[in-house]
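Bench notes, afternoon.
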Amino acid sequence: MSMSEKQVESLSAFRSFVGSDTFTRQDYQEFKPKAKEMGVILPRFLIRNNFSEKVDRGEWKFPEINGTSSSPVVAEDTTVSLATHASAARTETAEMVTNVIEFPMNSESYVPSKVNGYVKFGHYADVKTIKKSGNFYPIFITGLSGNGKTMMIEQIHAELRKELFRVNITIETDEDDLIGHYALVDGRTVWQDGPVTMAMERGATLLLDEVDLASNKIMCLQPVLEGNPLLIKKEGRVVRPKAGFTVMATANTKGKGSEDGRFIG
């Protein structure tokens, strides 16, 4: 379909903000103030002009961009000259140059895939209610290995189309694995965010799988588990949890282990 340059910019910014292949009316409302900050038009044309395929009640699929047109499809305020726009774009590009490597927000989604034939059981409805609320409400799920703790969480997020960052905890898991670390890329030392940082910034769920196998090396998660901002000491950067972020943890026992050694990590 043909879109104007402004509509393409708005669509790209909105899709990056949502971090998914679909969007809802709530996503649109939350994006309004962000659009003003980013200097893009509101993506109301996605709904009004049937640009987007409706996949459910109040939910649409982002359209594919096959081309752009010279004239806008929806009339918007075009008082800004092309020269000013180009200058602002160059300035914005310069400001975005950084030594931080981020996950590709436009090309990859962290929404789990649905499993055909999956049967809901146990506290499925309770966990779904918690995630659907959008509130920060950490939960701890225990049960013997193989009873479906992790899959239940994954399928809830697949049903709600919410992003999930799963971290498999071992006794060796430390701050570098969780928060981030420096790495050598193309001869440069650059910072790479870890799953905890990405989950907080995207408003996703952080799943700490088999958390009872961890050592004191994960004490860096204390502010995260409290729902507070996280200070990345090596970067001097403060990460504030976005709305929708929460933490879910799974374990085989309630932290007590067993005398027969079945739960040694």
